[in-house]
Design a protein that fits this description.
Layout (H helix, E strand, L loop, with lengths): L10 H11 L1 E7 L4 E7 L1 E4 L5 E8 L13 E13 L12 E15 L2 H16 L15 H8 L2 E7 L2 E7 L6 H11 L4 H13 L5 H10 L2
Antiparallel strand pairs: 1-2, 1-5, 3-4, 4-7, 5-6, 6-7, 6-8
Length: about 220
């Protein structure tokens, strides 16, 4: 992934972002064309600290034919994104751009055993059920054993050994304070993704928006 220095994220921040997102696009090359599938995943770490991305695919997914434990795959994990109009800048002669968060994890992928798949299914559901608290988490124990085992036969567990971590968070870090604040304020009036980008920008340079916070505090009932 091409990443200008202004936007480059360190390894720890990139892995933290990927784990928090938990959803991405897994890509591989079959020798003729790229193949990709969207997947939920979670990160684990080997004894030596190497990150591992655990996921599963439908048994008939063509990606499975490429999981030889040697070929390098790519997991692209994206966050919110938003278009930026040149009209929003204070400075003249700006051009349209797009702000975003993206992390790429890459490495070889191997198949899991049936026992490992069972652990993975439970771990994955636990991860995302916890997002819904205080709802009582769903667990595979709520299913009849026969039904669960039948469904597991239709999927195959895999794990990527993450050898390379690349992170790019393009949030206008290279712009002046005036332009940065103007764009963040404009995005704050946009759709859900634009509002998220605006909030991330505000967290990057909170001093620029201190007056906004103080005004809200003074006018709060």
């Amino acid at each position: 992934m091409y990443t200008p220095p202004f936007f480059k994220q360190d390894r720890a921040a990139s892995l933290r972002f990927a784990e928090e997102r938990g959803f991405g696009t897994m890509c591989a090359f079959d020798g003729n064309k790229p193949i990709a599938s969207p997947v939920p995943f979670y990160l684990t770490y080997a004894a030596d600290g190497t990150p591992q991305a655990a996921f599963h695919l439908a048994r008939h997914n063509p990606l499975l034919q490429l999981a030889d434990g040697a070929a390098c795959w790519l997991l692209a994990v994206n966050g919110p994104d938003a278009y930026v109009s040149p009209d929003w800048y204070v400075s003249p002669d700006q051009v349209p751009t797009w702000l975003y968060q993206s992390v790429h994890l890459s490495g070889p992928v191997r198949l899991l055993s049936d026992a490992e798949l069972s652990v993975q299914v439970d771990t994955l559901s636990d991860k995302f059920e916890n997002w819904l608290l205080p709802k009582k988490p769903w667990t595979s124990g709520k299913m009849t054993a026969g039904r669960l085992e039948a469904l597991k036969k239709s999927i195959v567990g895999l794990v990527m050994t993450v050898e390379e971590v690349e992170g790019s968070f393009k949030l206008n870090q290279h712009k002046s304070d005036a332009d940065f604040a103007a764009v963040a304020n404009a995005l704050g009036d946009g759709d859900a993704d634009a509002k998220q980008i605006s909030q991330l920008m505000r967290q990057t340079r909170p001093q620029l928006f201190a007056d906004d916070t103080n005004t809200l505090e003074r006018t709060a009932p």
